Amino acid sequence: MFDVPAPTRSQAITDAVVGGAVGALGCLAVWALSETRWWYPSDWTLRGYLWAVVALGVVLALRRASPGVAALLAFGPYAYLIPDFEPTLVHHLPVALGAYAVVRTGALRWYVALGAAILATLLLFTYAMSFMPDPSELAQLLAVTCFAVALGQTMCRLEVTRAQLEQRNAELVALQGAEAERAVTAERNRISRDLHDIVAHHVTAIVVRAQAALHVSRSRPEKAPEALEWIVSEGKDSLAAMRSMVSVLRADQEATEDLGTSLERVAQRLRSGGLAIRLEVPQPSPEATPAVRQAALRIAQEALTNVALHSGAREASVEVTQPDGALRLTITDPGPRLPGERREGNGLRHMQERADGVRARLSCGPHGPGWRVLAEFPAKFPERRAP
Fold first, then answer.
1. How confident is the model at residue 241, as a pLDDT?
2. Lateral strand order in the sheet of 327-333
3. What is the pLDDT of residue 317?
4. Structural domain of residue 264, as residue ranges?
5. Quick one: pLDDT at residue 374?
6. Of 133, 151, 175, which residue constitutes the final position of a domain?
7. Residue 1 lies in a domain
8. How many independent structural domains does the chain possess?
9. pLDDT at 383
10. What is the pLDDT of residue 253?
């Protein structure tokens, strides 16, 4: 049997109202017709029609709330205990409707309901008539019974299918909501990484330059304005970078540059702060997808920022090579690492996330007295399709 959803309270009330109305109007119609000059039924025949319309109203009222009770009344007391009359399609309607209701709601298997309805039809026809039944009339009533059962089975399947589709649709909506939340979280993490990498890089350069300006102002006061002008310029660049990140609809500048140009711009910013950077990039610049170029640039930027913050080195090297068509990025500094400094926090985690995003291998760790960051990108990285 199928798992058909139970009727709602409003549906049960509607069925009860409809069943009561059909029973009342049917009795009124039978009485009105019996009072006309065109129909002169006997008392037994009139009572049979009244039984039929009352039974039809009861089955209609219970067809969804209690289909088993409706079928039992139609197949039992109604079929066997009604007075003697010549049965017609009107008298057979309660039996057919009971069979439809019990199959439509899945209360009985269709073949069980069909057998019970056929038996009730045969007994109704032969018991009520005092003469030999007409085979053609009997065949018509049996055909109506079979049609009612088939219709009930079809409607039951349709109802079950509709319920399953609604459930799957609800699951898809929930899955879509979870996927949208995941996408929002991923986008937030991406913006967080970009803000950290860009702003930390600019602020680090400003801090380094400010320290240099403080030292110069003590020994050579005439050089202080030059250092302050650089700090102002770098502060404006930092604000511009932040606005660039907040305005996510604007394309990143690095997406249209080759890797060598972007790395040179990052290196120049830190060189002006007093950190000597040796940049080795093949010419022409290595070919890479925008995602790989962006990841390589941010990893190099974060690694150089860490050198300026956490190392006593005054120089660093950035080397880009292409072994076997792959892209390898190496950032090293000779050290020494500052006492008490630990290279932990969002920077290393963000570098690892960027490497994971383009299926690259990243290793960070001590390299002699200094530090080395090594990122190896695959030779072929498929572009991600837009959702």
1. 62
2. 276-280, 315-321, 327-333, 370-377, 361-367
3. 93
4. 256-387
5. 94
6. 175
7. no
8. 2
9. 45
10. 46
Q: What is the CATH number of the domain that holds 352?
A: 3.30.565.10
Kindly state whether residue 197 falls inside one of the protein's structural domains.
no
pLDDT digits (tens, 9 = 90+) for 64-99: 888 888 888 777 777 666 655 566 777 788 888 888
Low-confidence ranges of the chain (pLDDT < 50): 130-131, 248-254, 381-387
Domain end point (choices 137, 154, 175): 175
